[in-house]
Structures are given as structure tokens and as C-alpha cells.
């Protein structure tokens, strides 16, 4: 896929699915802005991309903060001259039933996972319109489509991202802005490994294997496998897709 000349923002791009997406976009010729709150990981990744001849910019930002969200869009335009593509990927995950979830935890998860998508998109969409159109991919989760006990706030936040994707797709359609959503399943990242450690602190690898056994394809997904779906949705290959919700889960949601 050719992204030469395109300018892309990836939130939560310092590690995991976001990192794989940022690297793939840079490899395909895009200028990439990595917006993440982890300063050390973000600057290291950006230095690496620039060292091999790519074009990357670090914006240290919290997507749930309105001023930071505005800064992500502004610094991108100042440095690269516009915005064509946005991947709203930043997300956090904490377990909790409806009763064990504190109000503070609920607000934190909704703020990052759902309000963060709204805020960054709010500042980026006018820039896409100025360029005559663009594409956005929101990273939700299979937990936004189906529920499991003990993930109340996370499931609600991701269900919200799916609904917001459809609303954004309709709002952007007249201006040539396509908005789609990817729902990953069990992807081997630090987020999933943290879950495994919560489930089995002594033997987190055993917990990871138990996750893999629940996937029809029999294994965890890689961040690169999700990134390739995201790139497809961003590219002209998916030119007739907007408001779509695509699972990348090894068959997990099909089986529920
Ligand atoms: P990860 O924990 O490996 O990476 C998340 C990145 O987002 C980190 O670099 C982190 O610093 C950044 N981040 C977190 N909060 C932020 C904030 N407020 N502002 C800016 N940056 C922030 O996670 P992973 O697994 O790569 O997840 C990426 C997305 O995929 C998330 O939205 C997650 O909910 C979703 N997802 C992941 C699944 C998995 O199995 N790994 C499954 C389903 C969805």
C-alpha cells in the first residue's frame, strides 16, 4: 500500500498496535505523528523512524485532555502542513464489574477510550476537510460488540467508540472523510500481558496460553496483523467503506 505524501496521526502510537501501525505507515511512505503520553517510548520510536529516513514527529499528549488534543492537530499541521489520516488507537483497560468499578475508574476509562476519540477527531476533522477528505480508523474492541463479566467500563467505552464511528462516518461523508472501526480480539501486547498477570500473577504465560486457547484460530494475534487491517481501511483500497465495523480477532466474535 502506498502512503507516499500522506500525513498520518497515530494516537497511543508508542507501543503495541499503535506502534505497529505507525511503523507500517512510515514504511509505506507516510509522514507519521506519534501522539502518546509515554515520552521515553515515543521519542525513541520517532528517533528510530527518522534515523532510517522516514518522517516522524513526537507529540507527548494525553488524548483525554482537550488542550493536548488540540496540540496534536496543531503541531502536525505546523510541521507537515496538513493531515490526511488519523488512527484513534490510544486506550487503557482495567477490569471491574458494575459494582466493583469505582466512579473514578469509570471516568478514567471513558475519558481516555471514548472522550479521547471524540476530542482528537474534533480537532483533526476540519484539517481533513481542508485537504479535500481523508480517512479515520478508530480502534474499539470485540468487547464493544459482545460482553464478558467483569469488564463493565471497558466494554461501555468500546461500545461507545463503535457508535461514535458510525456518527462520525455520517458527519464526514459529504466532505469525503471515511471513518471506520477495527475491533481487535486477543492481541499480544503489554495491555494483554497486564491482563494475564492480573489473572495469574505467578504464571502469566499460562494465562496468555489460556487466552489463546479461546481463539478459534488457536493463537493470539500480533500487533502487525491488526496494523495491516488498519492500513487497508486507511487506503484507497477501502474507498467504498465508511461506518464499517471490522473484527480482527481470529474468529473470536464469530463464535460467541
Ligand atoms: P498498549 O498498552 O500496548 O499501548 C497503548 C498505548 O496507548 C501506549 O503507548 C500508551 O502509552 C498509550 N496511551 C494510553 N493512554 C493514553 C492517553 N490517555 N493518551 C495518549 N496515549 C495513551 O495497548 P494495545 O494493546 O496496543 O492497545 C491499543 C488499542 O487496542 C487500545 O485502544 C485497546 O483498547 C485496543 N485493543 C487491544 C486489544 C489487545 O488484545 N491488545 C484487544 C482489543 C482492543
TrEMBL record:
Molecular function terms from GO: oxidoreductase activity
Keywords, sorted A to Z: Oxidoreductase
All copies of domain Ketoreductase, residue ranges: 6-195
InterPro entries: KR_dom, NAD(P)-bd_dom_sf, Sc_DH/Rdtase_CS, SDR, SDR_fam
GO BP, one annotated term: monocarboxylic acid metabolic process
SUPFAM superfamilies: NAD(P)-binding Rossmann-fold domains
Alphabetized Pfam families for the sequence: adh_short_C2
Keyword Oxidoreductase tagged: yes
Keyword Acyltransferase: no
Family of the protein in this entry: Belongs to the short-chain dehydrogenases/reductases (SDR) family.
Protein name listed in UniProt: Short-chain dehydrogenase/reductase SDR
Organism per entry: Chloroflexus aurantiacus (strain ATCC 29366 / DSM 635 / J-10-fl)
Organismal lineage: Bacteria, Bacillati, Chloroflexota, Chloroflexia, Chloroflexales
Amino acid at each position: 500500500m502506498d502512503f507516499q505524501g500522506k500525513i498520518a496521526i497515530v494516537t497511543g502510537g508508542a507501543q503495541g498496535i499503535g506502534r505497529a501501525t505507525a511503523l507500517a505507515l512510515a514504511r509505506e511512505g507516510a509522514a507519521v505523528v506519534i501522539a502518546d503520553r509515554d515520552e521515553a517510548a515515543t521519542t525513541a520510536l520517532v528517533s528510530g523512524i527518522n534515523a532510517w529516513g522516514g518522517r516522524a514527529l513526537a507529540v507527548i499528549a494525553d488524548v483525554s485532555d482537550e488542550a493536548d488534543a488540540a496540540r496534536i492537530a496543531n503541531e502536525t499541521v505546523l510541521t507537515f502542513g496538513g493531515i490526511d489520516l488519523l488512527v484513534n488507537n490510544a486506550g487503557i483497560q482495567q477490569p471491574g464489574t458494575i459494582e466493583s468499578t469505582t466512579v473514578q475508574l469509570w471516568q478514567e476509562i471513558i475519558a481516555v477510550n471514548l472522550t479521547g476519540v471524540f476530542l482528537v477527531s474534533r480537532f483533526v476533522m476540519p484539517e481533513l476537510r481542508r485537504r479535500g477528505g481523508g480517512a479515520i480508523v478508530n480502534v474499539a474492541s470485540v468487547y464493544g460488540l459482545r460482553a464478558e463479566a467483569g469488564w463493565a467500563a471497558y466494554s461501555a467505552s468500546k461500545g461507545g467508540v463503535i457508535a461514535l464511528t458510525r456518527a462520525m462516518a455520517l458527519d464526514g461523508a459529504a466532505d469525503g472523510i471515511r471513518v471506520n472501526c477495527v475491533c481487535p480480539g486477543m492481541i499480544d501486547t503489554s495491555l494483554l500481558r497486564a491482563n494475564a498477570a492480573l489473572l495469574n500473577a505467578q504464571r502469566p504465560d499460562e494465562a496468555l496460553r489460556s487466552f489463546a486457547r479461546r481463539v478459534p484460530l488457536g493463537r493470539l494475534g500480533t500487533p502487525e496483523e491488526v496494523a495491516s487491517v488498519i492500513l487497508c481501511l486507511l487506503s484507497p483500497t477501502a474507498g467504498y467503506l465508511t461506518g464499517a465495523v471490522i473484527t480482527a480477532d481470529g474468529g473470536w466474535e464469530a463464535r460467541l
